[in-house]
Amino acid sequence: MRTKSFVAVAITLLSLICQQSMLTAAPPNFVIIYIDDLGWTNTSVLMDSRYPNNKQSFYETPNIEELAKMGMRFSNAYAPASVCTPSRKSIQIGKSPARIGYTYNGNPLNIKNRKSWADETTLADVLKASGQNYITALFGKGVHEPVAGFGYDVVDDQHGVNGNGGGEWYRKGVPVAPDDPKQVYSLTEKSVKFIRDYAGKRPFFLMLSHYTVHSPLRSTSAVFKKYEAKGAAFPKGDPRTEKKQQQMAAMIEEMDRSIGRVLDALEKAGVTENTYIIFTSDNGGYISVAHDQLRGKKGNLFEDGLRVPMIVAGPNIPESTQCNIPINHWDFLPTFHDLVDAKDPLPEDLDGGSLRSLFEQGNAGQVERTEEAFVFHMPYARMPPVSAIRKGDYKLIRQLITGEELLYNLEDDLSEKRNLAAQLPELVATLSKELDDYLKKVGAEDVQDVFEAQYQHIAEQMVAIEMKYAELIEASGDDLEKIAKLSLARDKQLETLRKFKEEKIDPSRICTNFEGNPRGDFRESN
Known about the structure:
It contains 15 helices and 16 strands.
């Protein structure tokens, strides 16, 4: 009897060991929860515990807090750009916006030299090429291109390209319901269903790409009233008393509920332990009760435009930890490649490197990249054009019209208040040369070419308007009333373009500031 009992116990233990071994050997799942315009200080979680900030407690994000306990916070995480679309393309293909030739939304050179992404290797491509039967999905805001073109199997392209309009409309003529602001709940349910459908059956990659918290500010009435009452407890002049701050806090809470639903779905499916969960934002924020901690905002290259919240939980990632090594979203593609032990070689012209060592060792880890520095290039034709380079603790920012350069030591001066350019001219020269060399190597857009393309684009639009209305007027015969209406419509459209050029383009060309706002520090045009 004892022998039989021993054999039975041994068989049971062996079975459990085999099951555990199979679980360990199973390819990992990936979930990226990608928020639109969420700033570094826009949650109740401190991304850097070295900089306490009690104002952030105004936000209620218990699920993000739980995710932070499960994994690692990245205090020096950067978006590829300070506006959405360049970041959204860059994260998919592991290259900087300067390298891919898409540096800001509406850049006329992007329109003129529109690229095909068919030959690029994407996040989805890397996983599907690993030979491990991955299923991939992207729900929500896209890349201003059809998302399926980036290799995803399951998408919800309601608008063809899923731009910002998806936050307001389910599809043409069907507005988003008041109880589903920015589709925050319906996108969540699509994601939960995807997890239920595939968890435990196939390894999967889910990118939940929220429209929230991009403007216009939208939340359910009940949650907004909660923060309206909460803000009333603070003295006049405190940012928490402002309606826009209360609206933002309400949006953030509903975003956090979405994250909780996804975490619950993974847990119920039994795949949490084998899933890498990445929470981050496509660029810096624009409204925060703690806005004074970082300089700038979305749309410029100071830290609040580029530095973003990021938490990662998953296999072999130590709980409740913080990594201070700088990383960039263009690191995700080689990271995925490494984590699934893919055999196909990666493209040679990537900017990113694998974060696996950081995931497993935190600050003791290392990232190997072909490009040591982070380069951000935004040759705006509608706001002050700027470029920046971060290497080590230092960051240099250049105004592309005036050539003026600023230098900051981010380790000692996170808020970028002390310009060290005059004290460290040799370092300025070194970083400036590295910036130039990189931009030349990748064939980055020249700011003057961007302006000329913008002027040409406006001129072509005006010619098209003139031709369109000339045909309509000719077809109107002797109907003077109709001709008058058409002439008025033509003139209004032409005047809109003239004002756009005079108020948005020309001021940017002579603007001498760095803040991403044409109103401000100007010099006289020659």
